[in-house]
Amino acid sequence: MAMRPKSSPLFLERRSYRQRRLMDAARLMPILGATLWAVPLLWGDGGQGDAGARMSNSNAMVYIFGVWVVLVGLTMWVSLRLKDDSAEPPSTSPPRQGPPPGAAQ
Amino acid sequence: MIATLNLLIAVCLGYVALLFLVAFLAERAALRGRGAWLRSPVVYTLSLSIYCTAWTFYGAVGYAARAGLEYLTIYLGPTLVMIGWWWLLRKLVRIGRTQRLTSVADLVSSRYGKSPALAIFVTLIAAMGLMPYIALQLQSVTESFTTFARMDDSAMTLEDPRAIAFWVAAGLALFTILFGTRNLDANERHHGVVIAIAVEAVVKLFALLAVGVFVVWWVAGGVGPMLEKIDASPIRTWQMDGGRWAGLTILSAAAFLTLPRMFQVMVVENEDEGALRTASWAFPLYLMLMSLFVVPIAVVGLEMMPQGANPDMFVLSVPLSQGQDMLALLSFLGGFSSATSMVIVAAIALATMLSNHLVMPLWLRFTGGGAVISGDVRGVVIQARRISIISVMGFGYLYYRLSGGGTALASIGLVSFVGLAQVLPAMMGGIFWRGATRIGALVGLGIGFVLWLWCMLLPSLGEGSIIPAHVMAHGPFGMGWLRPYALFGIDGLDPLVHAILWTLLLNTAGFVLGSLVTFPTPLERLQGAQFVNVFQHSNNPQSWSGGIAQSEDLMVMAQRILGASEAQALFQDEAARQGLKGYLPEPTPDFLALLERRLSGSVGAATAHAMVGQIMGAATVSVEDLLAVADETAQMMEYSSQLETKSEELVRTARQLRAANEKLTKLSVQKDAFLSQISHELRTPMTSIRAFSEILRDLGLNPDEQKKYAGIIHDEAIRLTRLLDDLLDLSVLENGQVHLNVRSCVLAEVLDHAQAAAGAQDGTLRIRRRRISEEVMLTTDGDRLSQVFINLVANARKYCDASAPVLTISVRSDGAMLTVDFVDNGSGIPAEAQDMVFEKFSRVSDQKAGGAGLGLAICREIMARLGGSVGYLPGQGGGAFRVSIPIQGEVTMSQPASTQS
Questions:
Q1: Would the N or C end of chain A have less CB density within 10 A of its end CB?
Q2: How far is A87 from chain B (nearest CA, A)?
Q3: What is the pLDDT of residues B839-848, one digit of tens each?
Q4: Measured between CB atoms, which of B69, B84, B284 is closest to A60?
Q5: Cα B749 from Cα B782, distance rounded (Å)
Q6: B736: DSSP letter
Q7: Which residue of A has its CA nearest to B642?
Q8: What structural domains does chain B harbor?
Q9: ipTM for this model
Q10: Cβ-Cβ contacts under 8 Å, B529 against chain A
Q11: pLDDT digits over B302-340, tens only?
């Protein structure tokens, strides 16, 4: 539908813009994890080829646990910066409150 | 050897006693409202660790010894789910909290129109999936005992290891009953259990880390040598079936969401959504630490232990073989913790499901009247749960006895996982897709369940035990495409991947197709909107239309389920909120929804819905609900109707403003007119007084003439004084400084006095009264009241323009207020002047002006003082004024009325 009734403002102020991008990051996190942990699929099933060409389990462990630590760190960073429900539902932004009249004088 | 079997048993008992104490203290703290720390994110994260059962603690090492790094998939899946919390878990937890869900079955049934059939189905799947899992825990505890016993030099052999399993099962049942069914919490939360689980989580992590540290730094001699050892071990190379790697990761992610025990701790026991924020990274960290030392322990075990040693027990046997008895004991406690915490929560979760979705509906049906029967339902619910717990444990034990406890731990766990994962399509679809329907969910679940039985559960019981060998090889009745491990003739897949692939694929396909071709009921659509858009409207607007008020029946029912005091408090609060006194609120849709949600905490959504339905009649979906359910078009309509309302409001406000402006303008004109009027009024008597006093002074007059002129001067002076008196009176009244002389008086007397004082006896105005209705005792200021009456009668006398003026005074009483109407038969006050007559200086007709236009303004002030009011009563066929007086005078001395108008 071309017209959305509850349209959110076209541009956000800097803080809520940051929040939105953090939410995006939080949503992307499992995709990042799944992609990184899908890399072992490329290592081959070990069915053919000689032993020397195959990935050793010690290296595999270092890789998988390394990814794990990175994911934990990133998630922690993102989670602690995300505000609660700040923009869900799409914010019916509060009326912009200017300075009280006469404050500038 | 220090660690004798007796010591082991003593340690176990001591440990359990400690857990009892912790759970007890936590319950007590929560009861006294000092339980803030019970809700801390750390406790929440630790409670999630029941994902790591004895299967993790012992089984992972065995798994690693057999299949290398494949065991990691079981933890990678949940990690991915946790780090994607913003996308899925947050929504799930919010839904669970707003809908007061008590279990996975409750979630699915609630979402699909509170369907009892779905609830029962999911409960059965959960029960079937759980029995082997509980058996697995019993088995691992038993095996850990026997591992110790084998090392025991005192050669005390275990006569029957199954006895241990029995006592463990019995002990766990007792613990679960004590803390899981102590009370029926409307939120289904168990502080004691959660805190005990958190303690166990710490113990098992600490134990596994301790064994790991011991293995890496003591046995292997550091990280570098350890890695070398791994490279030299039988599991040195990455040998992974890509299908299994991906399939198992997906499976464990699915199981993490659908396992009843995970739902219990993750959603039901969650008291603070913010805890998820911490758990999102802390729980993956926990999982990583739990699986960090698995491979080193497996590698060292393979190297040091004799051929044929059970790799599932390396966590115990490696420290034992090194003479590290205390470490082994710690490790034993870790395994014991893993097993017990899982069994306790799983039993609570399953017992809740069984009692809410199977026992209670059946019981309600067989006891006849359902919600209207006598007796305490709470007792029945609690008993049902206790019996459920005992039977869950009993069946778990039975499964353990029958299966002989031989199969490798991990494979039993995977069978359970695949079974429970069948709930996933219905669950995810329910949360993210409004179009998902009950039929679709049933079809999907049915297909998944049957395939799971055929491809996984039955073959896992052993070749030829239930499915004969020739069926395994050639399919039933020779239909090769139905072979359990090669559906549709696709051969060569790993049986596990095969089962995951086909069950989930066909399950999802059935679910989607079923949803696409069927049409949901209104309640389903409503619940669908509630679930999918939980962040848009977190309140629950399912509505019961009021119908005939049956609050009392509702209260009787609620008392039996929630308990008398809680139900009464709930009803009283609601009544107070509705502004009623007593205990019985109106059964508004909001209240019924609230009540149903509270009840559903105790008996499940479907049953609660049915019980409320029994009293209130059929549930209806209101227009607002339908608007909420309908799609974007309807949302647009709703939005535009909102706009319309707003613009109407604006128009109304503008109209009011215009009216106010008009009134102000009129007032200003009036004031000007009055000023000239009052100058005139003051000047006329002053002029004559001056003129006559000059005559008296200058001209010699005879005494008669003197007397006449002095009389004129006197009359004019009186007229001036009266005008000034009126002005003064009004200003005193307006400032609220008036003193009222409140006493008892009879209305008839007041009216008599007024009639006489208004000069109505001269025959120009006939007054019609009904004396009987006037015999009312009033507590008020009679003099002031009669002043008002005088004014009204005098006005009628002065302004009634009928040829034979008649004033009808009628009195009516409605409880606290007495209304006295003064209706004459003249032409009345024109509409445009009606709202002005009570203003100061207002006079309807200038030509007949007898006073300064203060009379009615004074009346209004007086009546406001007396706690009543006077107003113009349009549409009576003449001038009509209505005076309302409180019978028991409440004299207000507060804000003067004129400042309010």
A1: C
A2: 10
A3: 776 666 654 5
A4: B69
A5: 9
A6: T
A7: A5
A8: 5-401 (1.20.1730.10), 423-538 (no CATH), 542-558+572-613 (no CATH), 632-734 (1.10.287.130), 743-900 (3.30.565.10)
A9: 0.74
A10: none
A11: 888 777 777 888 888 888 888 878 888 888 888 888 888
